[in-house]
Predict the 3D structure of the following.
Amino acid sequence: MDRVDGGSGVGINYKTCFEKIGVIVDKLSDMVYWLLGAIASITAWIVKRLFGRIDTLEERVDTIECTQLTKEDLDNSLEPIRDTNTMILTHLLEHRRTEYGPDKLKTKEIKDE
């Protein structure tokens, strides 16, 4: 007895109703699966982009750190230049002494270093 008469002469076929409900539930579950898949894909894409940018930034920082000079590097590389400047300055001061003589100095005092 798949058909039941509610007293109005119109019978309700429960088997057909359950089949229709089953089809609707199947379609809804498929939609939920598609929605979850889309959300997972979008999340994976965002995570990939974020970590890709982080990796790129780390590589850029590494290259900058390789080429960046430290204070110690500068001090070591500038030492010969300082020595040369000191030598030039002492030579010029000595030349000034010989040119003007001890009585005709333009500055009050010249100190030897």
In short: Residues 1-68 form one domain. The first strand starts at residue 3 and ends at 5. The mean pLDDT is 79. Residues 14-67 form the longest helix (54 residues).
